[in-house]
Design a protein that fits this description.
Rossmann fold, two-stranded antiparallel ribbon, single chain, 398 residues, 8 strands, alpha/beta, Helix Hairpins
Length: 398
């Protein structure tokens, strides 16, 4: 138990997403260090003396360009890991695989970085449950990284193979133009690959372009569509359950206590709360935000299929309007209307709208207290009479 508590304390201080994100960033920095060290040594000043792009890329090193792109992508993904983003976790695994391939190709007998990357890959797999968050920000980050990497690959690959196109591609603008129209699979035909290597390169751009753009669109639209669809399904499921239920109008302490009591007894309850009114209903309560005096709100609450509608607001006039609206919607159906009377002086006015049950906490409390102090008997008949519904059959909410 002590070891378990220590483990939980350590995980609370250093959660897996934190140290994995830092390790991915460290691995990315080590991965691009060979090129960074050359730049820090001012070696890059001589790169600008090359006469064409192919010589420039050869001078830098053809393998250094994808190394730089992968390293920067891993750095960006490390931020997504801090957010526990699932897409960042998946992209980190993919980038690590490509980084391992380059490390194996360029290791020259130095396997330290390879071992470090393999261990990091295993740790990411082991802690997959930590990264379950799906967000629009993380999806946008994935889209930026993937499209930027593809554009980087396409532009510099086109420049390197520039003399294998007709007409030859010799400047950055032409390479960018050709890369974009190829990635988008437009293909105007004004620039054509004429050598086998260039043709295979163009095929790879098309394949990567279709894959990246399709995945990017799904990554961006997925959370939005998925969230909207989930809300729609949940809403339809709630509406389908609004049958043989009890509708409570208001967010007063009385209303919340009645809801709690009904839920404890297994009743299905829908609470209607006025907009901009705070309430303390439990999270699992079916709460509908709207004006209960409006017919469309009562329809959405499923009033025609309800057993009772209780007007339990603090304003007696609003309770009367709720009863009137309910009777207008359902007429003489089996739905019973219940109204609370907060001020005893309003009792006669509430009686005029003829709810099935009228309940006055003031009169009920004062009568029970008076009879208790006087030593009189309090029985069920008295309680029924105090609901002030002598002319009609009293209904019990049990």
């Amino acid at each position: 138990m002590l070891k378990k508590n220590r483990s939980q304390i350590i995980q609370g201080i250093f959660p897996a997403n934190l140290w994995l994100g830092l390790l991915i960033f460290l691995d990315a920095w080590i991965f691009i260090w060979p090129l960074v060290s050359r730049i820090m040594a001012s070696e890059h000043h001589g790169w600008l003396l090359n006469e064409n792009w192919q010589d420039l890329i050869d001078t830098i090193g053809l393998i250094e360009l994808p190394r730089l792109a992968l390293g920067l992508g891993m750095m960006i993904m490390s931020i997504g890991l801090l957010w526990r983003a699932r897409i960042a976790w998946l992209m980190s695994l993919i980038l690590l695989i490509f980084a391992l391939i380059i490390d194996v190709y360029t290791s020259q007998g130095h396997f330290g970085i390879i071992i470090f990357s393999v261990v990091l890959f295993v740790l990411l797999i082991h802690n997959w449950q930590v990264f379950g968050r799906s967000s629009f920000a993380a999806s946008s980050m994935y889209t930026i990284v993937s499209v930027s990497w593809l554009l980087f690959y396409s532009v510099f690959g086109t420049l390197y193979l520039g003399d294998q196109f007709k007409p030859p591609i010799e400047d950055l603008t032409s390479a960018f133009y050709f890369s974009v129209i190829t990635m988008a699979t437009v293909g105007y035909g004004d620039i054509l690959p004429i050598e086998p290597t260039a043709r295979l390169f163009v095929v790879s751009i098309v394949i990567f372009g279709i894959t990246v753009f399709a995945t990017a669109i799904s990554a961006l639209a997925g959370p939005v569509i998925g969230g909207s669809l989930r809300k729609f399904i949940q809403k339809r499921a709630v509406i389908s359950m609004r049958k043989n239920h009890i509708i409570i109008c208001g967010a007063t302490p009385l209303a919340m206590n009645v809801v709690a009591g009904l839920l404890d007894r297994g009743h299905h309850v829908t609470a209607i709360v006025q907009p901009n009114i705070t309430h303390q209903y439990p999270p699992h309560t079916d709460v509908l935000i709207g004006d209960p005096t409006m017919l469309d709100v009562l329809k959405e609450a499923g009033l025609p299929d309800a057993q009772y509608i209780l007007a339990l607001k603090e304003d007696d006039a609003e309770n009367a309007f709720i009863v009137l609206a309910a009777k207008e919607l359902v007429g003489n159906s089996t739905v019973k209307t219940v109204s609370v009377v907060n001020e005893s002086a309003h009792l006669s006015k509430i009686q005029r709208v003829r709810p099935d049950i009228i309940f006055s906490p003031q009169l009920l409390g004062s009568e029970i207290l008076t009879r208790t102090l006087a030593g009189e008997v309090i029985d069920g008949n008295l309680i029924s009479q105090l609901f002030f519904n002598k002319s009609q059959k009293t209904e019990n909410l049990t």
